[in-house]
Amino acid sequence: MLALKNMFLFPPIKTGYGDGSGMVTDRHLAFYKARCRHVGAITVEPFYLDKGLREIPTQLGLDSDDKVEGLKKLTASIHASGAKVIAHLNHPGRMANPNIPGNYFISSTDKPCENGGAMPKQMDRNDMENVVRLFTDAALRAKKANFDIIELQFGHGYLLAQFLSPLVNDRTDEYGGDFDNRTRFPLQVLRAVDETVDLPVIVRISGDEMLPQGIKLPEMITFSKILDKQNVQAVHVSAGSVCSTPPWYFQHMFIPKGKTWKMARKIKKEISIPVIAVGQINTPEDIETVSNEYGADYIAVGRALVADPDFIGKYMAEVPGTIRPCLACSEGCLGGVRSGKGLQCLVNPHIGEEKESVHAASQPKRYAVVGGGLAGMEASIILRERGHTVDLYEKDQLGGQFNFAPLTPNKRSLAKLVPYLKERLNETGVKVISKEAAETDLVGHYDGVILATGSKASVPAIAGLDTYYWAEILLEENLPENKHVLIIGGGLIGVDIATGLIPRNNRITIVKRTIDFGEDMEMIAKNLSLKMMKEKKTVFSDHTYIKKIEGRTVHAERNGEPIQFDDVDIIVVSTGMKSYNPLEDTLEGKIPVYVVGDAATIGNAQDAIRDGHRIGKEL
Ligand SMILES: Cc1cc2nc3c(=O)[nH]c(=O)nc-3n(C[C@H](O)[C@H](O)[C@H](O)COP(=O)(O)O)c2cc1C
Ligand code: SF4
């Protein structure tokens, strides 16, 4: 029995908040403390079982007894809220990080992951015994550190899934081949852990690896029936593999919501123990659907709690306020972990600094914020929360350029952000003034002005470039069909525009001066977008400088050689942005001025929100 206080739990998410020692840090304590208040259980980030098996350099460890004291502090702080604490034990096998010195690689196979990774040693009996010992030793330490539940990772393409998977496991001994053989070693690990510690055990599986010859649901249903008979207390049904199908593993916005919920339902029908559903459960409606229609016993909510630590509290009406929505974009969270900065969030600038709440201003003042993009809206909200009076000037639509982001078909979930910020403006009492602010509106009327006027597309000087589009081509009234579109600039905006135009049967040519198309994109979105573009026969022309446009012919130079693109119907320019800040000079010396967001430095959506947040807290 898991005996949680409610049906919600936080799943295992690597935070990257460690300091390299494997020990608990203040960042871990603050992160989980902020998220444990309303859930039944917190799964602490996956532990490494041996220093040579890390996925990221800053991962938490459970490989030695000196880790126990810090973990006791962590479990005590989570227990104080009434939540239980789950220790997620995972051996990455061949998916240990090849860039971490000292890591070693073992697997059911001697073949590396085809998408990168080190060459593993195929495990022999001795290796298997060592692995079992790593799991049982870690489970004992988890018990000593007062964890309540053990979760064993049998999915996501890690070691035990490398045994389960018919695609990866190419052994010819009794640990490879048919289903009984492939399940043998994972079940040995399970039994050993269960016999070693008297803690309830959950098993996390990939219901489907979403690969032609990978793990499939029918086998996982049979496997779950076996788990049912093995004293397992719940089956946690995710999908995908870290090697081949990360979008499924991370439940990226590019993949459809609900497939994992269906898998959980199918498994639930066949077993008597509880099932945990997971995957983009990030609205109150999703919670209702997953519990009522899909019959999940427990619901794992990951990124929605990263984006808003009170997501469940707000859903249960225990906390007032609007839910800050998770966009399933993975930009800040996965992007932050991958970059080494640690988990961040596009929509949640508080993350990582949970301890520092927003303090009331010592002296309330009157501020004007000029520009209602992400930076301007966030600055206005925080200033207002702190007790200042705020007028927000926006001549067009609130949300600025971010209104274009959800126009790409795979990015519809981004559409949740601007309405949320509008709601917060409303809740906090920011006055929105629909006009272009002039000097006379500002000087003498406020104590300070925040300039958040954003950026404009930077257009290169090209002979004959008279008519062209930018991202506004994705607006319904502009969307072309059956045209040849040449996109100049192959960064995030160019790639997004291409993926928005392809479904309308447009033929795309995209050119870039350098080589890395989509270089500023989040990794999963980049890979999936470029894959789709290649499949749809997009012409990629790197190292290409556009020289001249004559009618429907575009002349260019590639590696010093002249080339040309013929029959071009439409040109899109997405060669970067430049700050737009027309008021700073005018206002200088007349009123205190603070420039934020793109108006100060070109960045992405997360940078804009963070900068608005920063100024909101500083003034
Ligand atoms: C940054 C990040 C790191 C993650 N790390 C792990 C991991 O190490 N092991 C694992 O099983 N799942 C990991 N996950 C997957 C989550 O446990 C969860 O299944 C996924 O985020 C989908 O749930 P959600 O949509 O509620 O976030 C990670 C997810 C994110 C975003
Ligand atoms: S970065 Fe995106 S996916 Fe990750 S938690 Fe924040 S909003 Fe959700």
Ligands in the structure? flavin mononucleotide, iron/sulfur cluster
Tell me about the largest β-sheet.
Answer: 8 strands, parallel, barrel
Query: Domains counted in the coordinates: how many?
Result: 3
Q: Helix/strand/pairing class, anyone?
A: alpha/beta
Mean of residue pLDDT values: 96
Total helical segments:
19
Mind sketching the topology for me?
Layout: E1 8-10, H1 26-35, E2 41-43, H2 68-79, E3 84-89, E4 106-107, E5 121-122, H3 125-144, E6 149-153, H4 159-164, H5 179-196, E7 201-206, H6 217-228, E8 232-238, H7 246-249, H8 259-270, E9 275-278, H9 284-293, E10 298-300, H10 303-307, H11 311-315, H12 333-339, E11 366-370, H13 374-385, E12 389-393, H14 417-428, E13 431-433, H15 439-442, E14 448-451, E15 455-457, E16 484-488, H16 492-501, E17 507-511, H17 523-535, E18 539-541, E19 544-550, E20 553-558, E21 561-565, E22 570-573, E23 577-579, H18 584-587, E24 593-595, H19 605-618
Parallel strand pairs: 1-2, 1-10, 2-3, 3-6, 4-5, 6-7, 7-8, 8-9, 9-10, 11-12, 11-14, 12-13, 14-24, 16-17, 16-22, 17-18
Antiparallel strand pairs: 15-23, 19-20, 20-21
Helix pairs in contact: 1-2, 3-5, 6-8, 13-14, 13-19, 16-17
